[in-house]
């Protein structure tokens, strides 16, 4: 199998060579002066294909890096209070447009109609969901559960 065929198979998810759980430690960034044989290169999928197309890779390691579950690695962000004049301007603006900001969503009115989309002989269009970080997935699940509980959305019944 050539490098190009192997890369194509790996990006399609057909080959998994090695999986290992590890912890990444911060390292110094490499400069252009450090570019030499054996240097580390992080690429996009398109750049990866171009590297292999031009045969510029002798060995490669494919890694999937996800966020750590514990909060010991998070950084605290400090927010400084606004000066009194700016705070008054913000308060007036929020008060002026208070009807634009809702704490809770209104309930969806019940419809007497049963809506259906006639696609003829065509099956429904399928699209893979967007990739999210673990924290993003938790937030999405929390919001979906809340909307389901409030009756604003319901599970899909498409084939």
UniProtKB/TrEMBL annotation:
Comp. bias (Basic and acidic residues): 1-20
SUPFAM superfamilies noted in UniProt: DNA/RNA polymerases
Classification via Gene3D superfamilies: HIV Type 1 Reverse Transcriptase, subunit A, domain 1
Protein name in the entry: DNA/RNA polymerase
InterPro entries with a match to the protein in the record: DNA/RNA_pol_sf, RTL1-rel
UniProt xrefs under PANTHER family: LDOC1 RELATED, TRANSPOSON TY3-I GAG POLYPROTEIN
Residue numbers spanned by region Disordered: 1-35
